[in-house]
Design a protein that fits this description.
heterodimer; A: about 210 residues; mainly alpha; about 60% helix; B: about 190 residues
Chain lengths: ~210, ~190
């Protein structure tokens, strides 16, 4: 991830537009590709991701910085997997039908790279107030992409919006599959870069993106 | 015919093309052939060792500990992580700085943890070999995905591709097309 702002100020829009969690850093893309085919799935993923990531990163930010990188990564993973336990129990109450559909992506949300990699590399180096704003912006950035992707893919693949049938003239059933997710996300990523470049007047040159390892 | 069937089976079980796991790692290491080979190798090792560890986790956890299974997977993968770092340090101190980057990249990687979570419960009880095989399949799948990506990497980054779509967007679309082919074949 790039520095959020050249002047050192952190804005809520940074993780949403300047350095989007999914479209710029390609973090947490697998749930977007595989689970982001309906709004119902997306809502569950968004709630679970936001809750686990926020709580885990806040707790993990107290891990001493002097520890070696690998120990910090392990501790972050342990914290998020512990946070996952109550979230899993609650989610089974709130989303009893959706959780089985998410399959392995549900526990994988607890081991996402925002928690494992960015806590040590970025968040723990920031002041707490700045960290909270930055963290929220990255969470909202993911949430927005997930919702937009799910909305478009559900409409194109199944002709529904939030499981309500709409008068769609044609359907692209492939949009509901993982390859449809890859292609749609690629197009969205290209569009995002185009818009960002036109807004920033080319300040964000190509190749500035820093892919994390998700 | 056997080899073709096996190849299709590996393609069908490919975590990158079918489950989108490890895609970002593939992109992060796609810029050079050496990076891809090293990353694939370390991910294979991680997947095999973590899957073997998952066998013991599954064997001894259950019932009231079911909700904590992810914590145990994280702990055993953490142990593998530390062991790999220690091993690479003692085997070649000269290359440690270079090797540890790949180890950091692979530990808690989506492909590794995805393998562990997929294999859990899908292999008959008492079959350690089944767990190890699943890890090897992940590694083989990642190597195939790496080869597929390395073939097209330069073209996807060439000036012929519109600037906004150069690199990751083009790579995502490319993987989507390969994934479509895999979907059709398997």
């Amino acid at each position: 991830m790039k520095e959020s702002s050249k002047k050192g100020k952190i804005h809520l829009s940074d993780g949403i537009f300047r350095d989007n969690t999914v479209l710029s850093s390609l973090m947490v893309i697998s749930p977007v590709i595989v689970c982001g085919d309906t709004l119902v799935n997306a809502t569950a993923v968004v709630c679970i991701f936001s809750l686990i990531t926020f709580v885990s990163v806040v707790i993990a930010s107290f891990i001493p910085k002097r520890l070696p990188y690998c120990l910090r990564a392990i501790l972050c993973a342990v914290i998020s997997s512990l946070v996952y336990v109550p979230v899993r129990i609650s989610a089974q109450e709130f989303y009893p039908e959706i959780i089985p559909r998410l399959g392995i992506y549900f526990p994988l949300l607890a081991l996402n790279s925002v928690i494992i990699l960015q806590t040590g590399a970025k968040f723990s180096k920031m002041k707490k107030s700045g960290m909270l704003v930055s963290l929220l912006s990255y969470i909202v950035g993911f949430d927005l992409v997930m919702i937009v992707t799910a909305f478009v893919r559900e409409l194109l693949a199944y002709g529904t919006i939030d499981s309500r049938v709409v008068n769609a003239d044609f359907l692209v059933s492939g949009m509901g599959t993982s390859f449809g997710g890859f292609i749609f996300l690629g197009l969205l990523c290209g569009l995002y870069r185009k818009i960002r470049k036109s807004v920033t007047h080319g300040e964000d040159s190509e190749g500035e993106e820093n892919v994390s390892c998700d | 015919m056997f080899l073709v069937t096996e190849f299709i089976a590996i393609l069908g079980a490919n975590l990158v093309f079918t489950k989108a796991l490890g895609t970002s790692t593939l992109f992060a290491s796609a810029d050079s052939w050496k990076n891809l080979v090293r990353t694939s190798f370390i991910i294979t090792l991680f997947a095999v060792c973590s899957s073997a560890g998952a066998y013991f986790t599954d064997l001894y956890t259950g019932g009231s500990l079911e909700n904590f299974r992810l914590v145990f997977y994280v702990l055993e993968t953490g142990l593998v992580y530390i062991l790999f770092l220690a091993l690479s340090f003692f085997v070649s101190r000269k290359n440690f700085d270079r090797t540890k980057k790949y180890i950091h990249l692979s530990a808690y990687n989506c492909a590794v943890m995805g393998t562990v979570l997929t294999v859990s419960g899908s292999v008959p009880e008492g079959s350690l070999w089944g767990y190890i095989l699943s890890g090897l399949e992940t590694g083989a799948g990642f190597i195939i995905a790496s080869l597929t990506m390395s073939v097209a990497y330069r073209r996807l980054n060439s000036v012929r591709v519109p600037q906004s779509f150069r690199e990751f967007p083009a790579m995502l679309i490319y993987i989507g097309i390969i994934s479509m082919a895999v979907y059709a074949v398997s």
